[in-house]
Amino acid sequence: MDRADTDTRIRAQIEPFNKKGVDIKEETTFQGxxxxxxxxxxxxxxxxxxxxxIIISMNQQAEIETYGQLVDAVHKQRD
Length: 79
What we know:
Layout: H1 3-14, H2 38-52, H3 58-63, H4 67-78
């Protein structure tokens, strides 16, 4: 799976969480732009983990601030 496939699958997962209809870009932040609270983050991470059959550790979650960072982190785990 290439990075573009990873990106497409994550975009599908983020759709129901994107309540404000923000245009998702590489630099889009979860806390600032999407205004995800801690519960939303937990639900979204669970959806990503289920979709890709991976585990995103709490340490990784703390380091991921932008959409692009998330795509890179998921893509790296899938390779």
